[in-house]
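A.,

Following up on our hallway conversation. Structure tokens first:
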């Protein structure tokens, strides 16, 4: 497997899991400041019953930034952007299908 295929798959998996956890926590990640608040570990964003999902979401966001940084180093910014865009599009298509 090439580095390109590896990063495409990794980013797709991470983005998909992040989207599912955000849904569990009823968080809108595209809302301005939301990702920063999650990374700051602002637990007021998440109801008590979903703290485990929130913690996992936060960890995956940190991981996503690390994978993106590594991907830019290994395959370049253009290919990383393409991989991330593909992953986001895939997740959006799954949402439309109700998955």
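Then the amino acids I'd put at each of the 99 positions:
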């Amino acid at each position: 497997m090439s580095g390109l295929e590896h990063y495409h798959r990794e980013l797709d998996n991470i983005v998909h899991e992040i989207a599912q956890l955000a849904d569990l926590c009823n968080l809108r990640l595209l809302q301005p400041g939301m990702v920063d608040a999650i990374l700051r570990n602002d637990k007021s964003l998440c109801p008590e019953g979903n703290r485990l999902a929130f913690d996992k979401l936060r960890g995956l966001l940190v991981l996503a930034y690390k994978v993106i940084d590594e991907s830019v180093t290994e395959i370049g910014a253009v290919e990383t952007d393409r991989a991330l865009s593909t992953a986001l599009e895939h997740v959006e298509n799954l949402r439309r299908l109700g998955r």
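The mean pLDDT is 88. Curious whether your intuition agrees with the design.

B.
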